[in-house]
Design a protein that fits this description.
Length: 266
């Protein structure tokens, strides 16, 4: 199925959103929770499966839904269609601070492999499937298990990165080592494996985990500086303990400062 040809514009810096312009009868599919706003005349439809084809039949819907379960996503995906005669706009927002990356699948031979929570939205006709790891080490220690997500088709897709995004073009045989959580995605010709860091001190005291992702070209790789798991860990570590206020953070006095300002009650 040929994907719908959509126009788009990305707004913002730290908390971005993408605005997609739909011609009459054009559509877009998106993960639940990413919708921001839309013009009047756009119809929303919840689809069982991956939404790659509106008339895929019951078996196709079951297979699409099964692929989404394996990637930890909902059984359903949301589609939006422009049912009026003029152009209409719809917007989807980033789930946390970072960048929205437009992926033209025709430029990558119809397929892009990404982290399973990176997908934001895509033109109707793009298939959102699964990418099984063929290597045991990669599946056990890659941080995303045996399964990553693949976007297939001939249209536009949009993925989200945490923090700042870096795009690297790897030459044939060129190797890039990356923290496993910092990978956004890569083209299908990139060889992806897991490499043990090595060294007793590095392993015990390095604080960087036990494994690197080893990416070997040729191909294109997208890297994020702030994976959501790292952001969530920092927020959790900084949260006040015991449900109380923690005004002493970063202060020389620390907890004694709370006593002096009268906040603590006995």
């Amino acid at each position: 199925m040929k994907a719908h040809e959509i126009d788009y514009k990305i707004y913002g810096e730290e908390m971005q959103f993408v605005e997609i312009e739909l011609d009459p009868q054009e559509g877009v599919v998106a993960e639940a929770g990413s919708f921001m706003m839309m013009d009047d005349g756009i119809k929303m439809e919840t689809i069982f499966g991956d939404g790659s084809s509106k008339d895929e039949g019951f078996l196709g819907s079951i297979l699409g839904a099964g692929k989404r379960i394996l990637t930890g996503e909902s059984l359903f995906i949301t589609a939006f269609y422009n049912n009026l005669s003029g152009k209409r706009r719809i917007s989807f927002a980033s789930p946390y601070p970072g960048k929205i990356i437009p992926i033209d699948l025709t430029a990558f031979n119809g397929k892009f492999i990404c982290q399973k929570d990176a997908f934001l939205c895509a033109a109707k006709g793009v298939s959102i499937g699964i990418e099984f790891s063929k290597k045991l080490g990669r599946g056990l220690f890659g941080g995303e298990g045996f399964i990553m997500q693949n976007l297939e088709g001939n249209g536009m897709a949009f993925v989200h990165a945490g923090g700042t995004m870096v795009k690297r073009e790897l030459r044939s045989g060129e190797i890039l080592r990356v923290d496993t959580g910092c990978i956004i995605g890569f083209t299908q010709d990139v060889d992806y494996d897991i490499e043990f860091i090595g060294g007793i001190r590095n392993t015990i005291f390095g604080g960087e985990g036990l494994f690197f992702a080893k990416l070997q070209g040729p191909g294109t790789v997208y890297i994020q500086s702030l994976p959501f798991s790292r952001l969530a860990g920092r927020v959790l570590a900084a949260a006040p303990k015991g449900g109380g206020k923690d005004k002493g953070e970063g202060s020389i006095l620390g907890g004694l400062g709370d006593l002096l300002d009268g906040d603590n009650r006995f």
